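Researcher: Quick one. two chains, 922 residues in total.
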Amino acid sequence: MSEAPLLSVRDLSVAFAQEGRQSTAVDHISFDIAKGETVALVGESGSGKSVSALSVLKLLPYPAASHPSGKILFQGADLLATDEKALRRVRGNKITMIFQEPMTSLNPLHTIEQQIVEVLALHQGLGDRQARARTLELLNEVGIREPEKRLDAYPHQLSGGQRQRVMIAMALANEPELLIADEPTTALDVTVQAQILELLAELKSRKGMSMLFITHDLGIVRKIADRVCVMTKGKIVETGPTKDIFANPQHTYTRHLLAAEPKGKPPAANAAAKPVMTGQDIKVWFPIKKGFFRRTVDNVKAVDGIDVTVRAGQTLGVVGESGSGKTTLGLALARMISSTGTIRFNGRDINELSFNAMRPLRRELQIVFQDPFGSLSPRMSVSEIIEEGLKIHEPKLSHDERDKRIVDVLGEVGLDPATRNRYPHEFSGGQRQRIAIARAMVLNPRFVMLDEPTSALDMSVQAQVVDLLRSLQAKHDLAYLFISHDLKVIRALANDVIVMRNGRIVETGPSEQIFERPQTDYTKALISAAFRIETAPVGTVSE
Amino acid sequence: MAGAAAQTAPDRIARPWLSPLNQRRLQNFRANRRGYWSLWIFLVLFVLSLFSEWIANDKPVLVSYKGEILFPVLVAYPEEKFGGFYAVTDYRDPVIQDEINAHGWMIWPPVRYSYRTVNNAIPEAAPTKPSWLYDVKTRCNQYPQGAADPNCAVGNWNWLGTDDQARDVLARVIYGFRVSVLFGLILTAGSALIGVTAGALQGYFGGWTDLLFQRFIEIWSAIPVLYLLLIVAAILPPGFFILLGLMLLFSWVALVGVVRAEFLRARNFEYVNAARALGVPNGTIMFRHLLPNAMVATLTFLPFLLSGSISTLTSLDYLGFGLPPGSASLGELLKQAQRNLNAPWLGISGFVVISLMLSLLVFVGEATRDAFDPRKTFR
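Model:
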């Protein structure tokens, strides 16, 4: 590193003014990016990694945000001291950015062509015909098949992966020196994530550009980054070449992060255990209606004839990419949406029961939702949230008995019972998910449907929640239906696995067999994408 | 329950009576000085007007007669109590006044007229100017003893003049303010109750319920209200509650839209699904989980609904389809002002009172709206 780095962040701080106080989000960080190098900023949510990246292009909400100290030198010039006009020539031209949500980063009212041409016209002043030719070239480059047909497409007509490719094409349009990628694959399925990462790596080496990659996923870092900066609480605690960091982490936080992957094994499978929940030939079809009389012309087959058995003390994992119908299956089994087929709970057919007849059964059949921020009412205290179910299913309990149950269950899920009169916003994501689990557990259920309960959580918190779920299962002999797209979590928790795609079962069997000796190409592709971030041959998975 | 609360008290962390969110809203509301002061001024005026009978009345507040303490405002004493023979005592009659003063004393309210008291001693043909525009001699020329008459006192002044039936404008304005605000409050509360319920049901159940209800509301709100009022006025005697009922039939529609939208949005929130999964009945879900969401929109809307109701009543009174003749009403005052352009005190009084009342309410409404706006920050 003899030559001057392309981007050099020196002693940067970011503070936000909040109700008269200054809170520091980024605290005196420094890092360099050399030409052609990929640097990853890794950290859990709230560590300040995105804020650092946004300050490079001065995209923070000024004047609420401010920089008490620091310089950002890009090719020798301090970007923080540059005025807005000069900065516009850098943005989207020399430094470009791709964001996490491909859904909202593209304007839904403009076609793909319009959006890419705008970038070209703005910075290069290309005419219509030239811009169109260049757009086609770019779309080809980012691997969109038949780009001529896609030019007039609107964002909603593309899949998530294709949209992210278009975003990349826009970012590359002006041959930038530096590409900032802020969690570009977090919203995507694992197989698509592998494709996008491969594309980014290939483009980077071909164009010789530098990349600042922001992510919380260490697997991606290992795959793509040359150097890593580990961030926590606004500070960079460790920085070094990727290999060294992974082989020989120095800082306790880095070690904690590396050790955080969900580990452990599910309890041994026991085919003799009593089935708690069985579903036979479950179908959930949403009719497509057309014409004046709203005739049903076709159906969207969200779940199309699936058999499941969940046994006491065991976990059935349901794996699939977005849109595979795994959540719909779970909701159908819990009778939250209507379906056809036989659903037996404790040996009783429940698919014909009315909402009112279901109510007494709800006690033993609980659900934990994905988003711990959305699933707890912000207007109720923790104690009110947990006692809601008790009030319905055990109305005879006195206030004191109820309070005791709440204290007990909070202790069981590892929360301080003294905090039960606080509101959900005073808790972190992991604590909130514990509250949601406590809400289900306080009723002593026999079957719990867990709908991606770890997806919204940081990696280290995921591991804790998985451990908690496993210990609760052992203690109460619970039957879990565990829905997730995250194969690592599934491997740590499930005895049996169903792999779903387009509403149908692709493969099913004991989890060991699925993970060690997958039979179908799709499962193989899913596993290699999830664990090794490798792409599958064309045609096996969606784009 | 009280014992239980006391027992668990030690390990409970004290909870403020307002959630942090509401505390912030209250703070925001206070930070808006104009709205905050408007609310206080309005509340003071409203509470005062509730005691109009003790402020402007043709009866004394307190009478001591032959050692007995009487409350003429609250109790209607027949005249024979004071030696007369009518069923109702006219305390403004000099004979009665002399009789009471000879055997005790009486305290008059600051304004000695009620809204329907006709001043028999006006210095010239009604409508008369405010008393402070006359000199003492002219002002009291109709009293038996002229300027020396005991009734030629400040309490008998017509501060804002009289209307064309020799009634005191100030007294009518005080009572009129009360009627308007009460009408507005009851109408708003009623519309909120019906509108929120209807909107909640539509939004929560959606589907056919929503579709049919929406079409019904479309047809319902297409009925011309004024026309209906005309027809009903021809059949039923006009009165406060009949008018209120009629207005209520149509004004509830205003809130349905916002509440319905909030419920439609919130019924798929995860915590609502979570409650459903717990087996919580629909009614409880709507009340406990969804209504608080809709309350923000509703509360923001209410002050404007209130000022809208008041101006509706005023305009109906102005047109003559409102409260029965003789009632204290601001709309009727405006109508008189229009007919007596030579008496500008009528129009000016009416205009000042109505605009003051509506401005206060709009300022309060504005402050409420801003206080509930999560994006708004005050520095």
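The interface with chain A takes residues 1, 4-5, 7-8, 11-13, 15, 19-21, 269-271, 273-281, 288-289, 292, 377, 379 of chain B (CB under 8 Å).
Researcher: Thanks, that's what I needed.
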